Amino acid sequence: MAENKTKALINAIKWPSIILIIMWTIKCMEIFGHISFSAWGVWPRHKEGLIGILTGPFIHGSFGHLINNSIPFFVAGVIISYFYRSIAIPAIILIWTLTGGLVWAFAKPAFHIGASGVVYGMVSFIFWAGFFNRDRRSIVLALIILFLYSGMFYGVLPNQPGVSWESHLLGGLTGILTAYIFKSRREPEDDDWGDSNEVDFYFDNDTFRKTKNERLLEKDNSNFWYSNRS
Hints:
- This protein has helices spanning about 1-35, 50-55, 65-85, 90-105, 115-135, 135-150, 165-180, 210-230.
- The chain is mostly helical.
- It has one domain (about 1-230): Rhomboid-like fold, CATH 1.20.1540.
- The termini are far apart.
């Protein structure tokens, strides 16, 4: 069991590391080769800018920009790959492409580069997976990500010149949608979290589907039934 977990962790670290190596290689090529790949970013509503949906997250304006994105990208990437490994690949692909597509469709006319939109999407996915799934593991991960990156909320506000706040906002919304799409998918290795046979929720399945009046009515009916039996 320990060997399987170690192998799973190593596999979870692989793809975020590979993508980060590509990002850092590209930045080094720009710096030492005195070139710029910014034109490979997303250029909204221009067909030439469509390629940026795939390439834009690899390109960063500075080493500071890259460093700021690298740590949360790695942390969120490993969390998704390890704890949601049956859906990690399709979830990341959806977050990556849909965020870029929405930026291309709705953002201001400029080259949008950097992995921050994808980072916001992954962080949002982890948090909202806890909200939609409501099992122990998802809630714990949501609380961890909230503790680590709650300050990212301010990045969705249009108050920082030169920052693609649209990427942050649209990435966050994409993360919510992705968490909702995959909310019914569960991992086979949930035994350690007490969720192997019967899903153990902190809240009832209908917690977010019933109104307050409906709950009060149920409570009154329950008390009435109990009183009659007594």
